[in-house]
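Internal ticket - ligand job 377, pyridoxal-5'-phosphate:
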Amino acid sequence: MDLFKVYKLWDIEPVKGLGTTLWDKDGKEYTDLYGGHAVISVGHCHPHYVKAVTEQLNRLGFYSNAVQNSLQKKLADKLGKACGYDDYSLFLCNSGAEANENAMKLASFQTGRAKVLAFGKAFHGRTSGAVAVTDNPKIQAPFNSTSNVERVPLNDIEATEKALATKEFAAVIIEGIQGVSGIHEPQDGFLVSLREICDRTGTVLILDEIQSGYGRTGQFFAHQHAGIRADIVTTAKGMANGFPIGGVLISPAFRAEYGMLGTTFGGNHLACAAAIAVLEIMESEHLVENAARIGEYFRNALCPGGNPMHPFKEYRGRGLMIGLEVKPGYENLRERLLLERRFFTGAAGANVIRLLPSLTITEETAAKFVGAIKELA
Ligand SMILES: Cc1ncc(COP(=O)(O)O)c(C=O)c1O
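stdout (structure tokens):
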């Protein structure tokens, strides 16, 4: 059987990792500043993570959600404390898209409304509802198109207010920082107004923190920079450092009923052990603080005094969620960084390089990247 070829692949096969370093099958060494789409939060093969997952695998890998699983409760307690949403409850699933599906379903159950408001250029995943609120017609099949979704431009408070004033919307869904679009932030003031409009119109505010969360921006969730609270927060990617998991953090205003949500694999023993280990490492190594510190280092080095260093046109983002828009003529910089200097980075469109490194990244590694840019530009 052949593979269904939906991915454009580099001709590189990493076979080993440690921290922010990867080695390919020929033994060539790479620096990983992308973490496989913001997934590697505590570094590749962190010894505490490896030990915790291995020990759990030797005890019990899986049983279904028909029995007690105290690891889920331990994870919920730890996560609640780490992110400041300890009065919320947690529903565990397997991916980011699935977390968003469940969040929108809950909002619809709660309000009895069918519509969801989303933002221009948003990305929320590829399953039915998640792709419907994603602003990319190329990845929506006719099956996914629905009149239940409307879209307004990000940061357009008037258009948002006009839509939500109809009180037809169960929820508004917004990324803490837009990732796939090329790192675009909702303004703090916009989020504050959005919170107020949601309260006034009975709309559920869903914060998709799947890429921007888990400490990456220097706060546990990016929207916390604006000082607001969401009704529902969705999370995945960095949550278990590569072990598939998703989480929905749900405000106490929602009442759970048996059978309302469910999944076979969600919250399984191995996934919980991996996610607990991630939170333990984040706490003991102060990784949220490190994300803020190294983020500042990158900003000062690549955008001194607010002026993007050549060959960048713009520096966007917060902490370790960084978008570097290159000037025309430098569209191949990302490829050169990989093939000539062996740095893994991400892309958004043709002209934005995305940096989403492990939160364990050191200043020394960040400086190596800055040096490579200077040499290539
Ligand atoms: C903001 C955001 N939401 C949702 C998703 C979907 O997550 P997953 O690929 O785990 O389904 C992504 C993935 O890139 C994302 O960046």
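Auto-summary: The CA atoms of residues 7 and 139 lie 13 Å apart. Residues 96-111 form the longest helix (16 residues).
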